[in-house]
From TrEMBL:
GO terms for molecular function: ATP binding; dynein heavy chain binding. This is Dynein light intermediate chain. It is found in: Cytoplasm, Cytoskeleton. One of its GO terms (biological process) is microtubule cytoskeleton organization. It holds the Pfam family DLIC. Residues 1-20 have a biased composition (Polar residues).
């Protein structure tokens, strides 16, 4: 023990010397470590409040802010379930959350209203600066100062419906898993009009809070990192990525703060009442939080059917929220149908999954019913043929309508054409040719002319000789000349 202590004292005394072998002052190891920790603490910090969604969706959101995209995709594909019960020796844990994910806006508003006056004044100052970001004035969207002088001179004023309900904090709404819109389109028969109405409602409501909106998908690159960093005032000196607004691609929507307006919302789909939705959202923000609850309302009130309950003259829905006229939530529920309710109705309609949705008639039963109709039609045709004259049988086929009139079948079905060996054939033209051929075959052939009856005159050989002699004389005379 003594030798160990002597060695320790010798090491400390040697390390505590002020000069090294070369005469330079030695650096203390502990002081360098403390300096590195202190420099790390001097880095700017940002606080991010994540609300809504599930634990998995919040974890995916935090991972999406990381720069290591390849590592994040690899971890997402190789996730192992947290349940470790192999050989009955493992254990696991679950997160039980009691937060109300649907009414987080009312919860946040209630908390902010209970803050002291000093905090409210500070938040108002922050919001007044935030309103000027990205409007062509002195500040850019990320909080940096504008470089161009022309941009610093002009600042756009606030439009109608903007920053009517500031929360005191920069708000960014992230809609994850935007690829599921294709699933709604295929299974629930959603159309572009319904997706546009949902987007118009969200943009109108977020415009009152000065918030931003973005749609993300795991397999599609998005501008989420750029949007969140600009909201937090984080900017890179090496590489600047501009934030590009996008409201055309339904799965890549990106609406930066201080960019949207009522005019841009109306352009997306005609017939949308922006003013009514904006005023209705202000009515919804005045709703009491937390709500009384479904069980308490049913105990103290009377049910009005299956959807509303009345308590002391006030009407509530089945979830315990007060129904107010002109509410934006009520207008949204009336305009957009809930896909989860459609799925429940489809599930409750057919209890057994093996049951056919549409039952068809048996093939033999269908053919049997058609035979009876054909027999009746055949009897009508035979009766018509017996009563008609022989010349009438040569006319085109006729049918009998319900009122007893006789009409040509060709008047109903029109020209009949079909393809034979790549050649387009007209049935009417072919029938006409066959009829012409039969008429030509049935007509009597003309009698042949008898050539033996004609008398032949004898040929005179002298005349032939004179004829050839004249030809020879002409040939000789022509050569001499």
């Amino acid at each position: 023990m003594a030798s160990n202590s002597n060695r320790f004292s010798t090491y400390t005394s040697a390390s505590g010397g002020s000069e090294s072998k070369n005469g330079e002052p030695k650096k203390d190891m502990w002081s360098s470590m403390l300096d590195s920790v202190a420099s790390g603490k001097r880095l700017p910090e940002r606080n991010l409040l994540v609300m809504g969604g599930t634990v998995e969706s919040q974890r995916d959101f935090i991972e999406s802010l990381s720069n290591n995209e390849l590592r994040r995709n690899f971890d997402r594909g190789n996730k192992i379930p947290p349940v470790a019960n192999q050989f009955a020796l493992g254990y696991t844990y679950y997160d039980l959350l009691d937060a109300d994910h649907e009414e987080w806006m009312l919860l946040l508003r209630t908390v902010l209203l209970d803050l002291p006056d000093e905090s409210k004044i500070t938040m108002e100052e922050v919001m007044s600066q935030w309103k000027e970001r990205g409007r062509g004035g002195i500040l850019n969207l990320d909080g940096t100062t504008a470089t161009a002088a022309t941009e610093a001179d002009v600042s756009l004023p606030l439009g109608p419906g903007e920053w009517e309900e500031p929360l005191g904090l920069p708000l960014c709404v992230v809609c994850q898993n935007s690829e599921k819109m294709e699933h709604l389109e295929k299974t629930q028969s959603w159309k572009e009009e319904e997706f546009d109405v949902v987007l118009q409602f969200m943009r109108t409501i977020l415009l009152r809070h000065g918030a931003s909106l973005i749609y993300t998908a795991p397999s599609v690159p998005s501008q989420l990192q750029t949007l969140v960093h600009s909201s937090l005032g984080i900017h890179s000196l090496l590489k600047k990525q501009p934030l590009k607004p996008n409201v055309i691609d339904r799965d890549k929507v990106a609406v930066p703060p201080n960019w949207d307006s009522w005019g841009k919302i109306r352009v997306l789909r005609e017939g949308f009442d922006v003013e009514a939705v904006s005023e209705g959202w202000s009515i919804d923000l005045e709703t009491k939080f937390p709500p009384p609850g479904k069980n308490k309302i049913i105990e103290n009130g009377t049910e009005n059917g299956t959807e509303t309950v009345t308590v002391a003259g006030v009407e509530y829905d089945v979830d315990g929220y007060e129904i107010t006229p002109g509410s934006a939530v009520t207008m949204f529920e009336d305009s957009v149908r809930n896909p989860t309710l459609d799925a429940l109705q489809m599930a409750g309609r057919d209890t057994y999954s093996t049951k056919l949705e549409v039952e068809t008639m048996d093939t033999q039963a269908f053919l049997g019913s058609q035979v009876e109709k054909l027999e009746v039609y055949k009897q009508k045709i035979e009766e018509e043929g017996k009563a008609s004259s022989p010349t009438r049988n040569k006319k085109p086929a006729k049918g009998i309508e319900e009122d007893g009139r006789q009409v040509n079948v060709s008047d109903h079905i029109g020209p009949v054409q079909f393809n034979v060996g790549g050649i387009q054939v007209d049935a009417d033209d072919m029938m006409k040719r066959l009829q012409d051929r039969q008429a030509y075959a049935s007509s009597p052939e003309p009698e042949p002319v008898d050539d033996t009856a004609q008398t032949q005159q004898p040929i005179d050989p002298e005349k032939l000789q004179d004829f050839f002699a004249n030809l020879m004389n002409r040939k000789v005379g022509g050569s001499k000349s």
